[in-house]
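ugh ok fine here u go
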Amino acid sequence: MTETYPTIAQCAIVATAFKILLFPAYKSTDFEVHRNWLAITHSLPLWEWYYEKTSEWTLDYPPFFAYFEWILSQVAKLVDPAMLRVYNLEYDSWQTVFFQRFTVIATELMLVYALQLFVDSSHGVAKRAAQAAAISVLLSPGLLIIDHIHFQYNGAMYGVLILSLVLARHKSGLLASGLVFAALLCMKHIYLYLAPAYFVYLLRTYCLSPKSVFRIQFLNCLKLGSGILGIFGLAFGPFAIKNQIPQILSRLFPFSRGLCHAYWAPNVWAMYSFVDRVMIFVAPRLGLPVRTEAINSVTRGLVGDTAFAVLPEITPRVCFALTLLFQAIPLVKLFFRPNWDAFIGAVTLCGYSSFLFGWHVHEKAILLVIIPFSLIALKDRRHLSAFRPLAVSGHVSLFPLLFTPAEFPIKTVYTIFWLVLFLMVFDRTAPASKSPRFFLFDRFTILYITVSIPLIVYCSLLHRIIFGKSYEFLPLMFMSSYSAIGVVGSWVGFMVVLFKRKPVQFLQTPPVDDESTEVWYIAQTGEIFVNYEEYLNRMDFYNQPRFICQITGHSGLSFFEALKSELNGAQEVDQAFPEALKAPVLRRVQFQTVSRIDTLVDMVYDEFKADYYPGEVVMIQTASGERTAGTVRDKARLGSKVLPDGTLTQPYSRYMISIDGRPDQEVVVDGGRIYRDRKIFTKSVLRSFIKKTVTREAWTGAPWLVKHDVAAQYHIDTRVPPHLRYDNKLLERKQHQAQKKASQQTNGAQEMNGATGGFQNFGPARLPELKPAPKSHKAIKTQHHQSPHHQDVDVHRHDTPMFYAQNQGPLPPVPGNQTYHFPVPFRNTMPPPPPIVAQPKPQPQPQPEPQPQPPPPPPPPKYPIEDLQLEPRDDYVRPALKFMCSDPPEGVVDSGARNDKILMKSIGPLLETWDTLNVYCEVYKLDSFTFDDFIEAMEIAKEDTPCQLFAEIHCALLKQIVSSEDDDGGKLLVDLPELDEDDEDDESSAPSPEPEPEPKPTGRATRSSLAKLEAERLKAEAAAAEKSPEPQVKHRAPEALADFDWVEQLKKRHFENGGWEMIMVGLLHQLSKKPQQTEACEELLAHLVPPDIEPSQETVREQYSKLDLNLRVSALEILCLLTVDTKAFRGYMEECADTMTGYRKEKIEWQRQRKQALEDLKALNEQRKILLPENMPPSPPAEEAEVTKTNGDVKMTDADESPEEPSEAESSDADASARRHTRRGGNRAAERQRKREEQERKKEAELAAKVPKQSKQFLRLLRDIQKKQDIIKKCEDEIATIDNDLREADCARTRILGKDRFWNRYYWFERNGMPYAGLPTSSTADAGYANGCIWVQGPTDMEREGYIDMPAEFQDEYKAKFKMTVPQRKKMEEGRTSVFNARQWGYYSEPSEVDSLLNWLDPRGFNESKLRKEILNYKDKIVTHMESRKKYLAADEEEDKEQAKENGKDEPKRMTTRTKTQASPEPVHFRCLNWTNNVAIDEFGHLHSEPPPPPKTKGRKAARKNRN
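structure:
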């Protein structure tokens, strides 16, 4: 845990599992409290919630928590409605326990989210500490005891609190922080204790100007105030309408209760009560009165008024005054220093004050202190010292909440384990403090923690054994008093840490006009006083024991003692720190920008701990093993060198050492045999030396600077580089903010990677007028009225030097006085300063007026950037797209090969259907097929040209809708509307063309009356016809299905002789009742069962054979979408996901083996280099040179010996041989691989025979190297195989190659989910491809409107920048062919078009860099498949020509299928007729469209036995 921490999510999962085990644990009355609140909020109206008092546990939380309970009750009624009855008191069924315990865990997700946000908001070294603190809060024993055993919902509410605190960390989150905290107050009013800190912090940082507290930001005040009023109105508004606010306040603030809770909270009043208990025995001896009625008050264990026997009574006003007083102390500091750390400190101290001095404080409120304090406990070791006793006392004080024996080991073991674990981790993680620590406080912490163990043992075990049931209040009193000491001590320690002492500021010398005036002088400080009273006051201040030595950390000293200690410490540091290291260390520290001195010390220590310098006294180990002292005389630094295998060696140093006591003897050693005395160069000594010699300004990013006198002593350049100066830093920050602000105004979005914002250029930013805050503000004010030249020079001349030590006495003047603030013209050209000597102040010489320097140019863009932000290119046009449809997009000049029968709207569904059928062919039991065969089958399948591919697809899809009656009786596997026959008849009878029945005449009918009725009926029908035209009958599906139960026929798999076509009619008619599918289904039914043709199975079959290709595509799309929701489909996806998980684990194992083999190979190569000179073979003859270079063991010394990456062919062969997979072919590839390996071994044997004999050790080494190389090769082959398996198993979605600058999507459908060329056992596997094209889809409507067809104002901005609008650029760069929306598709099918496309893509853009990378990864496969497609289509045309010639001589060849009756030979000129569903034949023994074969007849003997 010291190196890396587990993630918060992982800890949350483990903690949840542990908390679930605690479901049966003890539960307090709070469990019944919350159950009662569930019942109240669910059973009673809103205005009765705060009046209900059937149970003694009335609702006393604010309204938001009541709303929260109401939400939970809506779920609770589904679990156990009995828990929601108000009169069902003490109800605790197992369902109730489970539900309430589970809601605590579920709502704690808010805490997990807030802690993760806290970690993410931390950066650098602080992030590691933040994660440790976050995990400690998540696993806090306090939350475990209170929430998950005792029972409450504190975890969720503390999550809201932490969320509010984290939002306040940045200026942009201040408003949200205040609103979140307001909502928290409406959930639990105990957080009012922290409200003063929020008020001051938001007032100072959000409502007042950061430049002046007298400038109010009215808009921010309005937003914050209206937001808070809205939240409180939402919470209390419904109750205010009923005038119930006084009733709510009486419930929320019960001042009728006593000062102390039933169990004393560990605060000041617990100690007060303990003293009162002691005074009962002491008071009679001291003559003090004792109130007998109050003797049993505090120890009776009831919640009520508390009376003290001896000490004065405490009233609520006293508690309020003390709380407010001690809260005001940190709030004053927060107001003047409103930073986030001070804010968290103020929140913590407000929690301390309210807990220590509040009225009727519960012990559980200690979490108000622990949890905020945890966020800053690891800031440094001073904070950690104050946090330790709080962590111990706060958690131990919660033990009495769990008084049952079963929970004793849980609370004890878990809390002790948490304390040991996290306090150790905190101790290792917390950095050293910039200020000295209080060692006395550290000793108190250690002693306090030590006492906790025997106290817990006594209070939990020994007291009951010794006293039985007597003195039951004693353990509680001991525990509370002990915990109170720790909390109070922690509070005092944190107050001291927060208000740390500042260095003493010496007084300035007063002006003395008369030299004869009597003055008083303090020699140690150089201060002069003209008034004796002031001198005495200053001496009295210096003699107080309140000062600290900055070097040793000793406290409780007078000023003169501390000054003497610092001088002695500085002298000790000078003597202890090696003189030879001072100059190199100071040069390394100079101008460093590391913010924390601890980080700087660690960096310097790590760099210098193994480096030594001339003149340094060291210890060495000679070659004979002797250890002796010596002095470094010289040092040689040798750099890295490149080894033959391409690796770099580490640089190293060699030292010439003069041995002490042997003046004539010198030795040369390397870094491994030299070391220092451990006491000389340590981090503590180094830190003291750096603090003594280096200083740093207070602004962010300020560099560390060596003090001037020290820099002059060691000849260190003190001229600050321009990029580290404050004015340049400020200028750069302002320019960045201006660009960001302008970018937000123009684009509404932030520019990426530092590119210029928006579509416009920005002018130069105004030079800043601010400087670092000097010692004297008056000098700055007077200089602002001077010229720019004098402002740059004279300001620094009159200021007090910022980096001078305060007690170093007068210093000689330095040229420029502040060498890191040279005038602008001389900053880059000033020569090194001369030696510093005392000299009179030179007179300023007139200098020419310097020219103002232009602002630095904006940083160049860092690629990649947004694609459309790149300059347009008119030199290269995207290769022309081809369109397969008859209606290409508007403006297309030449679309290439088209199919006049396909519309553009059908291209997308056609591709989607083909991809689904091939990816999930194992589900549908279909053989894979090419996209061209699929289109041809959809086009040519007719009654006189039966196509097996067309029929098998439909039958396979239909089988997924209803299971076979032979399997499980035939079940419907999808959701269909209204399967009831009566409903179907009623529905189908509605559009029937039959006339309505004539109305029966009433009474006696005559001819005249009948004629009159007929005339009225005809007149009414004519009028109705005029108003609304009579609905036309679109199809006759109900008639066709009157005597045909399509579900039953589908169960029996009656597909032959038009059976599946009829089933399609029934399915489409059923789906037409879904509103979203009505239009498509009605259109199909109108063609399949038209109203002018008598419906029958034969006519439906004929109509399906005449169906338009686009309608066929629509029908298949409906079928595919219907089968996607089946259990078989989802099961296959889950199986693939599990398979991918196994593949990934296997891949990790092979990668680990490969890494280990590479490391071993590297070590073997090192040994080979050592033995190589002695075993160097002779140079090979000319004719064998090439062979030796490629196959021999001997290689060039500078050659890369890493194993070569396997080629595509080898990788595919290895895939075929190394893994058994359902989509793999035979072992032909493995046979070829074995032959190649045998040939290589023969060549190696021949070459080895020609090589002269070498040493056995060298030959053994070569064999080991070859073995390692073979292992590496095997690992790489296996990794490649697994990668391909992962690609094939990735079937969840079709992955795109990427998008171009105009947001067109590029697809290569073989990329994932299927073998590259389809199933190797497919009947059309010889085609060598599956789709063979790169398909281009247009942008979605959102992308088109947001990036291309932008509003006019954005188009104008873009045109002002690039001289054209985005649509104009699209037309120019895409040429004659474009796709404009997601319903339009084009494609590339030629290898040359792939190269042209790659040349057109610009790798400097985000989209196209990714797209180009993907195409390059798969380019070889794409080109191979395109060529295979081209050959396949060309071969088909040649075959048609050849067979047309042969038809005059020989009979055409028939295909062998399992269909026994074939009326005529299949037309061989259609490619798709060559396809056979081998998968179905192998699985079922017959095709989908064929009936299953009859069972085999039994033998004669078996038949006889049956007859007998």
